[in-house]
């Protein structure tokens, strides 16, 4: 059953002349790991904002079509309700953290929704353990590394126990190892905790292997929406709307020239297996 | 030549960001300074035009000690493009933005105007000359921030994290631009942790970790060295990673690019008829 259902969605920000979303149809099932990508300005962040009600509640504009998030319509559901179902992690964790301790930051949203102390403590403990943040629980978020900060931001959202996690370029300013640890943590949450993860990113190489769906947008439209293997089999290598991972380029060129490998490996491990068996 | 000699730098809050860094940059080189966030990349870059002065050691720009010269003087030789373009714009038009920096450096009107035109054309921004910088896209802003520095034709140009926040079309443009600058004889110094972008440029790579240089050498040797990259929180680029995993069956693990890997894999396996 789909957890997010979008039909004919069009959006234009107030004061702007350009349509940012043009007739978007998208269904996402529970437990999926979905990447929405495309060039700057393609509308991917706007689409995420429509999924947790920031649009139209915080950003107003012309809105057509329908969005359903766990059968709720974000247009007439208050953001504090939607955000307990679909939590959003922003690009820069510093915009999301402000407390004097990691624990305090995680507990903040829980205080806001009026949980009792016992339940708050329980949830804080759970997410600290989940993202292996126990050792830094008393530290100030400001003295943490970029990767740790982003993990704390994710933990603070997870504490709300949303079914859906939305992340807007969460690793764009992180170094590769921190980015990988965030992405691996998300993949684990998706697989083991049945969390639905929807992420926007420019860099695909670390993500591709985990995706159930790769959605590529260009100028406000969805141009690809399929399993990454199917997208990469079709997309033109000259197409520069997304950075095609080097391994995928290699596979495509080898297949074209030598008909090999027969399968379509998405990762180095799969490639090695296909070659050596 | 830029000579960085045993430089230590300690920020006022007590953080020791550079712990004895030595490095020579020769004219015409393309250099990538790589390392994790907080490794000292930006601190090192800020020493190259005197924005920061070493607490110990020294930095010489063509023989001139940065402590004995002004940032304005040094900037004529070493132009730095910082990461967030928005924070440096304030003019009403793209043209004014570039013109302003030339006037600050003391160029007379006629000469400044011709340099503005040259730089904006070089960066493919001439068509936007009357637009407000703030209405440009992320990639165009990045190009404008490079044009501003390029305009006075510094001998050395430093670009801090060129690809952060840049999408695929802009990454391609940046790659072409950097290769063009190199061909035109400009010494280019990049700071980056984007291994997939850097590997195609084949620069000399300097790995920083916790304020120290842990490796310095050609891309072929550094970007294929998993242990060294690991120490700087970097990952092997995909092609070197694949070739390393395939090394057991006799492929040359030194390949960096897709083209090289295709040549290597196809020659190896055609001869052995594995497929």
Describe it.
The complex is a heterodimer of chains A (277) and B (275). With 277 residues, chain A is of the alpha/beta class. Chain A has two domains: 2-244, Rossmann fold (3-Layer(aba) Sandwich), CATH 3.40.50.300; 245-277, no CATH class. Chain A is 38% helix and 22% strand. Chain A has helices spanning 44-51, 54-57, 79-85, 102-112, 117-130, 146-158, 176-193, 228-234, 246-258, 268-276; strands spanning 2-13, 21-29, 33-37, 61-69, 86-89, 164-168, 196-200, 213-218, 221-226. In chain A, the strands form two sheets. In chain A, strands 5-6-7-3-8-9 form a six-stranded mixed beta sheet, with helices on both faces. Chain A has a three-stranded antiparallel beta sheet with strand order 2-1-4, covered by helices on one side. In chain A, helix 5 packs across helix 6 (146-158). Chain B has one domain (2-236): 3-Layer(aba) Sandwich (Rossmann fold), CATH 3.40.50. Helix content of chain B is 39%, strand content 22%. Chain B has eleven helices and ten strands. The mean pLDDT of chain B is 92. At the A-B interface, helix 7, helix 9 and helix 10 of A face helix 6, helix 10 and helix 11 of B.
Short description:
Chain A is of the alpha/beta class and 277 residues long. Chain A has helices at 44-51, 54-57, 79-85, 102-112, 117-130, 146-158, 176-193, 228-234, 246-258, 268-276; strands at 2-13, 21-29, 33-37, 61-69, 86-89, 164-168, 196-200, 213-218, 221-226.
* CATH-scheme architecture of chain B: 3-Layer(aba) Sandwich
Average pLDDT of chain A, rounded to a whole number, is 92
Number of domains of chain A: 2
Strand content range of chain B: 15-25%
Sheet with most strands: strand arrangement of chain A = 5-6-7-3-8-9
CATH architecture of the largest domain in chain A: 3-Layer(aba) Sandwich
General form of chain B: globular
How many helical elements of chain A? 10
| CATH topology description of the largest domain in chain A | Rossmann fold
Largest interface: A-B, 41 and 42 residues
Strand composition percent of chain A? 15-25%
Number of self-contained structural domains of chain B = 1
End-to-end separation of chain B: 51 Å
- Report the order of strands and helices of chain B: EEEHEEHEHHHEHEHEEHHHH
Helical element count of chain B? 11
């Amino acid at each position: 059953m789909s957890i997010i259902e979008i039909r004919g969605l069009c959006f234009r920000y107030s004061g702007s002349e350009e349509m940012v979303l043009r007739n978007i149809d998208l269904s996402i099932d529970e437990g999926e790991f979905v990447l929405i990508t495309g060039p700057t300005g393609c509308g991917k962040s706007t689409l995420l904002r429509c999924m947790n009600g920031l649009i139209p509640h915080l950003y107003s504009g012309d809105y057509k079509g329908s969005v359903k998030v766990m059968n709720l319509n974000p247009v007439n559901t208050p953001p504090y309700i939607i955000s307990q179902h679909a939590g959003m992690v922003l690009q820069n964790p510093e915009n999301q953290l402000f407390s004097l301790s990691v624990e305090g930051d995680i507990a903040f949203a829980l205080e806001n929704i009026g949980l009792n102390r016992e339940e708050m403590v329980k949830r804080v403990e759970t997410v600290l353990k989940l993202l292996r943040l126990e050792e830094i629980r008393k530290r100030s978020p400001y003295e943490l590394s970029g990767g740790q900060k982003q993990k704390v931001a994710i933990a603070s959202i997870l504490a709300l126990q949303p079914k859906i996690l939305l992340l807007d370029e969460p690793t764009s300013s992180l170094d590769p190892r921190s980015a990988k640890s965030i992405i691996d943590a998300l993949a684990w949450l998706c697989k083991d905790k049945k969390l639905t993860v929807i992420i926007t990113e420019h860099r695909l190489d670390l993500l591709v292997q985990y995706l159930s769906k790769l959605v590529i947008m260009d100028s406000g439209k969805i141009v690809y929406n399929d399993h990454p293997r199917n997208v990469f089999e079709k997309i033109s290598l000259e197409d520069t709307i997304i950075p095609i991972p080097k391994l995928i380029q290699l596979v495509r060129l080898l297949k074209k020239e030598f008909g090999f490998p027969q399968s379509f490996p998405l990762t180095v491990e799969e490639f090695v297996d296909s070659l050596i068996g | 030549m830029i000579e960085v000699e045993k430089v230590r730098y300690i920020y006022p809050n007590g953080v020791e960001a550079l712990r004895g860094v030595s490095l020579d940059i020769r004219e015409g080189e393309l250099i990538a300074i790589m390392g994790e966030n907080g490794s000292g990349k930006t601190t090192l870059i800020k020493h190259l035009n005197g924005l920061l002065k070493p607490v110990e050691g020294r930095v010489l720009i063509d023989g001139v000690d940065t402590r004995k010269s002004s940032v304005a003087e040094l900037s004529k030789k070493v132009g730095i493009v910082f990461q967030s373009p928005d924070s440096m714009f304030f003019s009403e038009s793209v043209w004014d933005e570039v013109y302003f920096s030339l006037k600050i450096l003391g160029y007379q009107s006629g000469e400044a105007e011709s340099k503005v035109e040259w730089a904006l054309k070089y960066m493919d921004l001439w068509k936007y000359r009357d637009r407000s910088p703030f209405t440009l896209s992320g990639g165009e802003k990045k190009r404008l921030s490079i044009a501003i520095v390029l305009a006075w034709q510094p001998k050395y140009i430093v670009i801090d994290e060129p690809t952060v926040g840049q999408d695929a079309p802009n990454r391609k443009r940046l790659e072409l631009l950097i290769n063009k600058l190199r061909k035109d004889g400009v010494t280019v110094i990049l700071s980056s942790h984007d291994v997939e972008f850097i590997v195609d440029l084949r620069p000399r790579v300097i790995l920083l970790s916790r304020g120290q240089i842990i490796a310095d050498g050609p891309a072929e040797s550094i970007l294929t060295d998993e242990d060294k990259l690991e120490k700087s929180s970097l990952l092997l680029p995909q092609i070197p990673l694949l070739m390393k995993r395939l090394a057991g069956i006799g492929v040359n693990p030194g390949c960096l690019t897709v083209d090289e890997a295709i040549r290597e894999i196809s020659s190896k396996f055609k001869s052995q008829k594995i497929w």
